[in-house]
Amino acid sequence: MAQKQGIPKGTRDFLPMNVMKRNYIFDTIKSVYALHGFVPIETPSFEYNSTLLGKYGEEGDRLIFRILNSGEKVKKADTEALSKNELGKFVSSLSEKSLRYDLTVPFARFVVQHQNELPFPFKRYQIQPVWRADRPQHGRYQEFYQCDADVIGSESLWHEISLLQIIDEGLEKLKIPAFTIHLNNRKILSGIAEVCQQEENIINITQALDKLDKIGEDGVINEFKKRNIPQDAIDKMKPLFQLSGSNENKLELLKSFLSGSETGLKGIEEMEFILSKCKKFGLKKASLNISVTLARGLNYYTGSIIEVTADNIKMGSICGGGRYDDLTGLFGLKGLSGVGISFGADRIYDILESLDLFPSKLSMGVKVLFVSMGEKETEQAMILSKTLKENGVSSEAYADKAKIAKQMKYANKVNAEFVAVIGETEISNKTVQLKNMTSGEQKEVSWDDLIDILK
Questions:
Q1: CB of 56 within 8 A of CB of 31?
Q2: For the chain, which domains are there?
Q3: pLDDT tens column, 201-224
């Protein structure tokens, strides 16, 4: 019995219609990036472990797909470490490369490696797949695309404004009905830890706070306790869980809470700048919301933190990003601040599909399919098809010998917009029977008029 074929969980095959819809998303996002002066780059699908590990925090490191060494390198595995149950050391001896977890860390490596070839500030966009060994579930895949845009080499908060405009314009062009941009600042999170005298626990605090929307207030408190955050610090932070009202009201309450933290107040100052400029220059559709528990779980953020959700749709974030002041410093180039965002193309796809928001034109296949009665008719169809393609009209001639019914069935399967039938009579008259596959209308058209009608 033949083994049933399948693909790993968390991955997907894409049929032609899926690819066309995905390309629509990618092309829309690319057009907005290009409009704002970003240029494309690409990096390898895998990097050295030294590039990736230690950049995403402990949780992120666990989700990195390692690539097993091959050939003679396998013989160099540290079996002594295995015998001593030093699994981390043993795994490292088996693997020196990993699939990339995101596009940002490889981008930092790219900038350092090519620093003498790039203008600064450097504005790049990158649309490529990434891999995470996460538990597959609705809207969460182990292989998925990121659509990143970053500005590196500038500390100006005006770049945050530009990126928020890109999010707003991109999601509007993609017809997302309503969406909210949630904002926070790493300095505010650091200020919270400082006020609670828990600076050494900043990672534990932010990782727990970031789960508020998933596990609720009680869940976060339990997370704090598991991470050994003292009860008095937990009690201090409790009012932050219920922070509500306008963004201005939230900032005023945060100012009071963070009055003893210079770092926290600096974060509020940056947030006020961003909110005021967005209000002045306007966003087309996005709502802005200050979310003091937003952390996004990435250790390299140092300033603004951005996350976007679609309103009234049960889906995780569809876009996110933030500022990182010294990510390139991890690779030897200090003091190069950057800020970036990433559209979650796969989740956006799921939303557009569920709400039937893809343009109807994407469902159309070849413009015209020629069906024929015999060898001589097929040859003439090939000639006409070639002429149409030379004039920018997509066309195809059915080449196999088959009954008309089978050829028409094929036309339906490939979503042909028109079908052109050629028989002996049509060759004599130098015409085709042209049928509109949507309306069902059929008429006789001369070869000379075919191009103009189909264009």
A1: no
A2: 179-311 (3.30.930.10), 364-454 (3.40.50.800)
A3: 888 888 888 888 788 888 888 988
